[in-house]
Every structure is written in C-alpha cells, then in structure tokens.
Amino acid sequence: MKVLDYLMDELEKYPLHLSLIDPEKQSPEEAGEIAEIAEKVGSTAIMVGGSTISETRLVDETVKEIKSCSSLPVILFPCGVRSLSKYADAVFFMSLLNSRNPRFIVREQAEGALLIRDLGIEPISMGYIVIEPGMRVGEVGEADPIRRNDLSSAVKYALAAQYFGMKFVYLEAGSGAKETVPNEMIVQVRKNIEIPLIVGGGIRDPSTAREKVMAGADMIVTGTALEELFFERRLSSIVKTIRSCKRV
Ligand code: 1GP
Q1: What CATH number is attached to the domain comprising 68?
Q2: What is the pLDDT of residue 137?
Q3: How far apart are the CA of 114 and the centre of ligand 1, in A?
Q4: Residue 224 in contact with ligand 1 by CB distance below 6 A
Q5: Of 147, 133, 153, 148, nearest to 184 (Cα)?
Q6: Pairwise CA distance, residues 23 & 83, whole Å
Q7: Cβ-proximal residues to 240 (8 Å cutoff; 6+ apart), any chain
Q8: Residues 161-189: what's their mean pLDDT?
Q9: Is the CB of 235 under 6 A from ligand 1?
Q10: In angstroms, what is the span from residue 200 Cα to ligand 1's centroid?
Q11: What pLDDT sits at residue 65?
Q12: Can you give the pTM of this predicted structure?
C-alpha cells in the first residue's frame, strides 16, 4: 500500500500524530529505540529529517535502524538532496512556499527528482509554510516567515498549495519554537482548504496538541518532545489526546 493511501485511510479514523526524528540528534540505534516507542504508543509514521543534514550515510543508517525496530512507514522530511535515503518508504516532496530563494521552492527538488524516481521512493507533494518564529528552518530556508497575526497570508499560501495540486499543507513554527502556530491561523486555514493540514513546531504537551487539533489540524508533528529523557509517557499521552479529539 502506498504511504499516501495509508495516511489518508488513517485520517478517516482520527487525527494523526507523526514522529519526527532528526538523524543528527542521536545515534541510529537510539533513533531505532525512539521509533519502537513511537509505534508502541500509536504514532502513525516516522518522519526523518532536519534543517542541517550534510551526510546521506547518517540518514541511511538512521532509516535502516528505524526500519529494523518498527513497522511504521518512514517518510523523509528533507532539507535537500543529501537527506534522501533509498531505505525510506516515502518522501515529503515539499516546497518551502514562502522562501525568498528559488532553491528551496523548486531547484533543490528538481535536483532530487531523478534520484527519487530511480530509488523508488514514493513522493508525497506538500506545501511547506513557515510561520513566525520559524527558528532554524526559517533561517536555513531563507523564509519570510508569516507573521503570527497575518492570517490572510497563511490562507493564501495554503490555498495556493492546494491549487498546485499538493496533497498536504504543513504550517511550521520551527523546531523548538516557544510560540506554536496560532490557533486562529489554523482555524482560518482549515476553513479555506480541502486538503489535510499538518501543524508542527513547539508542540510538546497534550493540551497544546489538543488545541491545534480542535482548531483544525489533521496531523500533529512532534520532534523535540522525542529527544527528552523518558519521553514515552508524555508521547503516549500526546498521541492518545490527538486521537481522541473530534475532528472539526
Ligand atoms: C519541526 O515541526 C517540527 O520541523 C517539529 O517541531 O521539534 O518543536 O516538535 P518540534
């Protein structure tokens, strides 16, 4: 089954949680252990990526270890061609729509397109929109982050993603952000698009995750929360909370 079909089927049942693992933040073996726990507590897929990956080998080793410890699909969340691993099931083929640099909108993607085809990784098209504060990904991706009160720009970019035929929209506040994507922004974007909405950046507890889902997020990404010691109980409670929310 294609990963996109799997995600869409799961979305029919409840809002989803995706676990983001940055290969540069732990050893491949530790990444495998995190993935095993993520699967145990009900996360739907493992995303692998980070803003500064320079070594494909590290991504390969991390993905291989994750695959050996968990049966969840591994979806690459690439910052560029070097983040592509032949061992992954799929790749978010993403365009950083509010970047100032064409490299992050389409050029790096063009560089990777043949490789993705030849390696047989499933591309899943996604519009990626960076919201203030944007953090490291906002800097590296040369984004003009959307201001937290600029709801109409968020809606315009999200609708543009839909009109481009992208499968998902991702509103990203940046990894480790103190301020998450504003709930009202999620409400407005949800009201104006028909494709699933992913929200991430700074979500580390069940009540924040619940707010985002109640505002209209279909999928919640957490990364930093998985890097903490003894994260299992907290992750389990985040995932349970997300799954128990009634969709808007
Ligand atoms: C970053 O949105 C993700 O791309 C996850 O952010 O690390 O803050 O969970 P956190």
Answers
A1: 3.20.20.390
A2: 96
A3: 28
A4: yes
A5: 148
A6: 10
A7: 41, 42, 206
A8: 98
A9: no
A10: 5
A11: 98
A12: 0.98
